[in-house]
Amino acid sequence: MRGHGFLLANHVPGNSLVHRTPLWAKFLLVAACGAASFLMVDWRVSAAVFAAMCGLFLLSGAGLRRLLRALWLMAPVLLLIGLFQWWQLGAPTAARIVLNVLVCVVAASVLTATTPVQELLDGVAGLARPFRRFGADPERFALTIAIMLRSIPFIAGTFADVRDAARARGLERNPRALVLPVFISTVAYARQTGDALAARGLGEADANEASEAGER
Questions:
Q1: Which pTM was predicted?
Q2: Is the distance from CB of 31 to CB of 22 less than 8 angstroms?
Q3: Euclidean distance between the first and final Cα of the chain, in Å?
Q4: pLDDT class for 213, splitting at 50, 70, 90?
Q5: Would you report the helix, strand and coil content of the chain in percent, each value rounded to 5?
Q6: Exposed (0-12), middle (13-18) or buried (19+): which is 201, by Cβ within 10 Å?
Q7: What CA–CA distance (Å, rounded) separates 97 from 58?
């Protein structure tokens, strides 16, 4: 499978102010943008926050090209959302909703572009650690995030490859020619991932616990 872009920007090594910002502050930025997306009711405020997030992304040195690629991947979905909301609620509301989504995407891209994956996963595990008393496993939670970050680009890339192959055969409008190969590839990838985890002894504890619970 050829390489494909992802919704969020990949890590870009650097020494910018954004790179040096503590991870907790960048997590807080993403959370604040997510909360603000429900509170901003004026599209002009949303546009100003979006511009600020774009400026922060460029300040990190990640580059305009990466920013545009992340936004371009969202364009088809946002276009449909924007047109529907325009039809239902009018242009200002449609613009506000689309801009609020973009604010969240760019804020998350700032986090992923300026934070190494391992540091990001360690931070996620640290955030989940207080929930250990309720039975949560921070390491497994971080592993789940890692698998997700790896799987989504794979599935998106598989769909793009299958779509191109179907178009070459004149079957781009045949749902079976698009869905079935993607489904088979995804299941095979999931099984390979499961086998790799089992080979490293991951998941055995859960299986043993389930077996003991069944015996009781």
A1: 0.65
A2: no
A3: 46
A4: very low
A5: 80, 0, 20
A6: exposed
A7: 23
**Residue located via tokens 């077996």:** 211
Give the contacts of 193 (CB within 8 A, at least 6 positions apart): 147, 151
3-state secondary structure of 5: coil
Q: For the chain, what percent of residues have pLDDT higher than 90?
A: 7
Distance from CA of residue 13 to its chain's centroid? Answer: 19
Please state, in angstroms and rounded to a whole number, the distance separating the CA atoms of residues 159 and 165: 10
Assess whether pLDDT exceeds 90 at residue 48: yes
- Three-state SS for 45-85 is HHHHHHHHHHHHHHHCCCCHHHHHHHHHHHHHHHHHHHHHH
Residue pair 62/114 in contact (Cβ under 8 Å)? The answer is: yes
Q: What's the rounded Cα separation, in Å, for the pair 128 and 140?
A: 10
Eight-state DSSP code of residue 133: G
Closest residue by Cα to residue 33 from 63, 54, 9, 4? 54
DSSP letter at 44 equals H
